[in-house]
Design brief:
11 helices, single chain, alpha/beta, 8 strands, two-stranded antiparallel sheet, about 260 residues
């Protein structure tokens, strides 16, 4: 999607430091990943005192303002998180989904953050917004699902991008909520035209038959309450097609969780 303001997000000092230290471009996600690997190795070697003394090489910094008032493991400060454009609770009905949970409107700065995740390899966005989505969802009265199922990319698209942004969000959610993530529960068996390039009238037909559940995972989904995870909801056509495939595999119910919603 290409809506929203053309304002740019500020350059983060952490990214500059990482590029200098490692002599190559790195996202904040990669910096934390490497620091985490070093911390794990130190713990296995018996170096618990090192971790308590602060082995992390780069402290948490906000994706938006570069501030340090961040909760552990979330690269988004409390002030910036509170200023993200809140979406009203979803009141409509999108069959066969039982509910839609989407905390933000798809506009600045959420649109810029999602694009950084989707097209520029910045997976730290998935951890920051995915973790925040998880805490927001946990505070809702509805019970949590049994499994998290990310909307898959077609194999060719995932090879080109190197990762699935919906699965990166699901990874952050699973860590916050202690709900199992099942990244292979759905396959995208047909490459489709980008939904954003099509009028709303044609989007559902574009996705007909695009998803299937592998035979080996059907028993895992049977009678399970599922949350389908994606980055942005526009018309809901992608979620409808994916949910239909999951329910045909005898899942009990499917609700949709996204970072943002186009209003």
């Amino acid at each position: 999607m290409e809506g929203g303001s053309d304002r740019a997000l500020p350059l983060r000092c952490a990214d500059v430091r990482a590029a200098i230290v490692h002599c190559q471009p790195m996202s904040l996600f990669q910096v934390y990943e490497r620091a985490g690997q070093r911390a794990t190795a130190a713990l296995r070697a018996g170096g618990r005192g090192l971790l308590r003394a602060g082995l992390w090489l780069v402290p948490p910094r906000c994706l938006m303002c570069d501030g340090t008032d961040c909760d552990a493991g979330i690269d988004l400060c409390r002030q910036c998180a509170s200023e993200l454009p809140a979406a009203p609770d979803f009141q409509g009905s999108i069959q066969p989904l039982t509910a839609v949970f989407s905390p933000w409107r798809y506009e600045y700065p959420v649109d810029r953050l999602v694009r950084a995740l989707k097209f520029h390899g910045d997976r730290s966005v998935a951890r920051a917004l995915g973790s925040t989505l998880g805490h927001w969802r946990a505070a809702r009265p509805a019970p949590l699902p049994d499994l998290l199922v990310p909307v898959p990319l077609h194999g060719a698209r995932q090879r080109e991008r190197g990762y699935n942004q919906a699965d990166e969000i699901a990874r952050a959610l699973a860590a916050v909520l202690s709900v199992q993530r099942l990244p292979l529960a759905l396959e995208r068996v047909r490459e489709t035209a980008p939904q954003t390039s099509l009028p709303a009238l044609y989007r559902r037909g574009n996705l007909a038959g695009a998803f299937r559940v592998p035979d080996a995972l059907r028993c895992k989904l049977r009678r399970s309450r599922l949350a389908l995870i994606d980055d942005v909801m526009t018309t809901g056509s992608t979620a409808q097609a994916a949910a239909t495939a999951l329910l045909e595999a005898q899942a009990e119910s499917v609700e949709l969780w996204t970072l943002a919603r186009v209003l």
